[in-house]
Amino acid sequence: MFNTLRSRLLAISRPVSLTLAGALLCLNVAAILFGVFARYIAGGAPIWTDEISRFLIIATVMLAAGTVWSEGGHMRVGLLEKLLPTPFARLLNVYQWLLTLLIAAGGAWISYRYALSVSMFTTSGLGISRTVPLLSLPVGFLLLAWHALLYGPAPLKTVEDTL
Fold first, then answer.
1. What is the pLDDT along the chain (163 residues), one digit of tens a residue?
2. Cβ distance 64 to 141 under 8 Å?
3. Per the UniProt record, which residue ranges are transmembrane (predicted)?
């Protein structure tokens, strides 16, 4: 029962994360195209187009990172898992899973603390608190931890598994 709940939550969480990341990517493309149009056709682009595109690309990557990890899409070398005997390969999978959880949770905590520490500063182009765009980092790290937790210490998919 717990495994079916985990797999259902993961099946819901993956498309939601990718849809949000895709929407942010579309906003980023629109901001860049507007900046290009304003710069080369209208004669001058507002400063906020460069700044918002930087913030949007970071948010896009952070929102998609957990889903990409759970689908085995991050670049990694899985040769060692295939060469080790099964008990050692399982131990390596547990180690990788725990390490991913630890790094994701630590990244969420540190980036959250940092985002709050710069709340008194504003961005140069948008004029908003720096905390607002920086909150995409802890959210992304939390999503990575969430996806890793739901995926469990199972072996990650490889390119050969998808062929």
1. 667 888 888 889 899 999 999 999 999 999 999 999 988 888 887 888 889 999 999 999 999 998 888 887 776 667 777 788 888 888 988 998 999 999 999 999 999 999 999 999 998 888 899 999 999 999 999 999 999 999 888 887 776 665 5
2. no
3. 20-42, 54-74, 94-112, 132-154
CB-count burial class (<10 Å; 0-12, 13-18, 19+) for 144: buried
Structure-token pair, residue 95? 């180690």
CB 49 within 8 A of CB 35: yes
The token pair at 113 is: 């603390």
Nearest to 18 by CA among 70, 57, 54, 67: 67
Which tokens is 59 given? 């948010």
Q: Distance between CA atoms of 144 and 14, rounded to whole angstroms?
A: 11
Kindly state the tokens that stand for 151. Answer: 């995926």
What is the pTM (predicted TM-score) of this model? 0.86
Domain boundaries, the chain: 1-157
